[in-house]
């Protein structure tokens, strides 16, 4: 089995909904397990692991997810990212597969800056980055991000938004990421 952890922050539940849709796509891939980790609870036990850090270390792939706040990752996500510096020193995430997603209120809203920050985080950890792989066909990937997943939500509750097309794009990204991790692990 390959294992993937989705390390996300969500202030108001929209990015959490995206994380769950990505996880649904991953879970549909044979031979992959997926754990959803709220990075503000990374010190707490999760599943069979004593902490989120242990779950992350045991993973073959890690997806980073954050809302875009003021043109970048949210402060809680950045706190998590900064606290990986010891892992960076020890190169403990080297060659894990990585990808990223962000949700924001505008169609663009500077999501590209956030995705670039997530990519740079993965690159500093010497990880293997997986791009979105979902075309903008007028419905899916309507915001046209390719570096990672960039979804949009309206100013309404997470029960209503992001919409079905955004969640479908999220699920397709999950499938692609799960398959990529499987290939990487199989070839090891
Ligand atoms: C502090 C703050 C900053 C924000 N900055 C942006 C921004 O730069 N671009 C944008 O499109 N939306 C921005 N938004 C809107 C959020 O990205 C949007 O509400 C998103 O759905 C929040 O996700 P969450 O529910 O997972 O926290 C901002 C919201 C907050 C609270």
Structure description:
The protein is an alpha/beta fold. The protein has one domain (2-186): Rossmann fold (3-Layer(aba) Sandwich), CATH 3.40.50.360. It is 37% helix and 21% strand. Strands 1, 2, 3, 4, 5, 6 and 7 form a seven-stranded mixed β-sheet that branches. Strand 5 (97-104), helix 5 (111-124) and strand 6 (128-129) form a beta-alpha-beta unit. Helix 1 (14-27) crosses helix 6. It is globular. The model has no long low-confidence stretch (mean pLDDT 98). The site of flavin mononucleotide (FMN) has 18 residues, from helix 1, strand 3 and strand 5.
Strand count, sense and closure of the main sheet?
7 strands, mixed
Distance between the termini: 13 Å
General form: globular
Query: Structural class of the helices, strands and pairings?
Result: alpha/beta
The amount of beta strand, in percent, is 15-25%
Gross CATH architecture: 3-Layer(aba) Sandwich
Number of helices: 6
In short:
The chain is an alpha/beta fold and 188 residues long.
What layout of secondary structure does this protein have?
Layout: E1 2-8, H1 14-27, E2 32-38, H2 52-57, E3 61-69, E4 72-73, H3 75-82, H4 85-89, E5 97-104, H5 111-124, E6 128-129, E7 149-152, H6 164-186
Parallel strand pairs: 1-2, 1-3, 3-5, 5-6, 5-7
Antiparallel strand pairs: 3-4
The structure holds flavin mononucleotide.
Residues 10-15, 67-71, 103-106, 109-110, 153 line the site of flavin mononucleotide.
